[in-house]
Amino acid sequence: MASHRKKRTAGLKALTKRQWMRVIAGCSAVVMLVGIGIATTTFHQSQNRAPNPGATAFSATENGSAEVSRDNVRKALNRGSGGSDSGTSYVSVKINGVKRVILGDHFTTVKSVLDAGDITLDPGDQVTPSLQTKVNESTTIEIERADASVKSEDSAIPFNTIEERTDSLPAGTRKVKTEGQNGVMETTSLITKAGSKSLSSNIFASFVKQAPVDKVILVGTGSGSASAPSASAGSSTTAPVGDSQALAHGLVLSRGWGEGEFTCLVQLWNKESGWRTNAANPSGAYGIPQALPGSKMGPGWESDANVQINWGLGYIASRYGTPCGAWAKSQASGWY
Hints:
membrane, transmembrane, signal, Lysozyme-like_dom_sf, single chain
């Protein structure tokens, strides 16, 4: 029997030339849109993964006597905000086996690193690699100095006396809650000799080996009536020890912070630097607040307690609000 139905032509073969052009154009547009979407997503992901530059403070007790690693220094530099710029880099230097990290801007050669670290070569020093060798953050510069030895000495960090008021004791009663104990500051120096005569002694690192334990005295404010606690209960005062703490005490109060905030500041910087203006952690952190790098504190940063303390208080205010906020962070993570 004859069939009266029209023969079916394959769908693609049935398309006209114009329809083919439309199909191809449509597919091209889809591909372009997908490509743009992928590129945009990749861009935003790369932006979100970009490191946050700029930490300017770092705990001296976090690395302390431990081996300084590039990862630890880079993490420290990337913490926080408003600090070091993208040009800040670091190179490790070993002098007679003692390691230190030098921070600076746009290092080029071994010589540029030594200049930034204020490291003066003596006649006969053996430097590896050579002074004109290009450097990066994986470079370790080694200096062998003849007639020189490394010496570490411990010195005491005095403890503070804190008075805590409490209504759990009758008014006028005083009770020692915690006995005080001095901390330990470890200072490593490179000593150059000629025979038995010492020619020079340069401090290479100085950090808190053990933080002091403050003496805490409870001062009773109770009235003897459980229904009428003293309004001053729970507050504390800390007697400053040394000129730097006396200066900081006045600056803390001038900012409108109370005595309790000064107590937190004393504990924080006792742990960080022992309140030494020349505290130099092997990581590159420096001074009373342990700024990383120390030059961020501005003119006078190497030895001026006023410069270091004002910078440190500004950093704390912008980052944590108060010294007690910074101290809480330090207790929780080991750095602030």
